[in-house]
Amino acid sequence: MGTAVLLAAAGVSRAYGERVALRTVRLDVARGELVALMGPNGSGKSTLLRIAAGRDRPDTGTVLLDGAPMAENDPRVRARVAVVADTPSWYPDLTVRQHLELVAVGHGADRGRIDAVLRELRLEAHGGSVPGALSSGQLQSLLLAAALIRPRDLLVLDEPEQRLDPGARRRLADVVRAEGARGTAVLYATHHRELALAAHRVVLMEDGAVVADGPADEVLAREEA
Fold first, then answer.
1. Side by side, which strands form the sheet with 5-16?
2. Partners of 63 in the β-ladder
3. Is residue 62 in some structural domain?
4. I want to staple 199 with a disulfide (CB 3.0 to 4.6 A). Which of 16, 33, 34, 72 is the partner?
5. What band does 225 get if pLDDT is binned at 50, 70 and 90?
6. Which superkingdom (predicted)?
7. What secondary structure does DSSP assign to 153-167, as a single string?
8. pLDDT single digits (tens) 58-97
9. In angstroms, how far is CA 86 from the centroid of its own chain?
10. Residue 11 resides in a domain
């Protein structure tokens, strides 16, 4: 795990009308660090992820990527941050392989990695399939594959285990660990203990605030006690 801070969020708050989604949150993520956000629905995890990825702006506080302000439309951010969001989207007329080729061309990535990513996510038999022919779990794997094709220093995942069966969730945990080993920072929200244990740290959220932040096994043990 790296030690240099890649993502730094300080004093971040966000409200939507009268609903307060985040309450003065601080979060640092180092290069190569795996950080899992946990907490009940409505605790602020998705809002924090959107802000961390530059897809939403905080009402107060700052979010920095390598010391510079985070903004989704900044070419520097687009070149370094890959996201699997909570609102999936795809092109209904493009095959799985065509999706990945489009992402690779758009981001100047190595198209030669497409076969390896398809194998890693068990999609090699579905490269010629359109989204409508895929199961819900395979669609989720397609979204993750599109993120893994891109160049990235930071990977942001919002409940990436959605619609995955237990075997696919175990493979996802392996993917997360491999990303960290390559030096990619991964910030992700999850409800699954197995996936949370793949992280170096678990950040527990409740009512828009961080209520625990520490080594994954220690935070999860306290929650289960």
1. 19-30, 5-16, 60-65, 68-69
2. 9
3. no
4. 34
5. low
6. Bacteria
7. SEEEEESTTTT--HH
8. 999 999 999 999 877 788 888 899 999 877 788 999 999 9
9. 10
10. no
